[in-house]
Amino acid sequence: MKIDAHHHIWDLKIHPQIWMEGNSFDPIRNNFLMNDLREQLDETEIKKTILVQTVKNFDETPYLLDLASTDQMIAGVVGFLAMGSEDAMSHLDHYQSLPSGNKLVGIRDLAHDYSDPDFLSQPQVIKNCRELGKRGLVYDILTRTPQLRAGIELAKSCPEVTFVLDHISKPDIVQGITEPWREMMRELGSLPNVYCKVSGMITEADWVNWKTQDFIPYFDVVLESFGPSRLMYGSDWPVALLAGKYKDVITLAEDLTKSFSPSENQSFWSDAAVKAYSLQL
Question: CATH no. for residue 116?
């Protein structure tokens, strides 16, 4: 069994995706629901998924939780909290009080959208993150390189919390830039409470002309930094459709991990996600 540890769904009439600015997002300016994803998984071994929030809207997470409670494919939900807010935990209380609240396995805030690159190291964010740890919830770190230093400081400040870095922190693959991303990834990977999703890479490359070789220098960095036991596969579907089909994403991941041993593959495709998110399959 394989797990897709990072995908989304949206119904634009219910939750408009206001981050889709400009014509470049036209290919995904549609509704994408679980049955659409299932059609993409027919020729794969993906059997379970983790559904991740997309908008800063407190109504989205209960919607995703309700969906997860009726869809056996969804093993867990990473919901939204405004982590810099003093009332963040009141919203978390609401999520967890819902009949589907047991499907909540993690929390994410869109750190790379804030004007302050040090958002993740703010005292209120650290305080709220520590509370997540007390409740057994993961915090998904969503950064680009400018916010990565604050992400490191957050993870250092909360050693009792499990963190999962989304999309290998979105390095500038299209320009072939590795520093200072590489140095900070090594530092983040040295922290034993942090995992990394090998996800969202093709949309950081040339959407039309990317090839496997473009990603090898970046994958080598995350493999060296985190080791195979703390890496996990994520598709970032349907965002990934901007640069390729679902099959392209999973083939890329298979190519990058072809030298893995059977146990390392088991970890990458399943066990790391199960362990990090405490999934009940």
Answer: 3.20.20.140
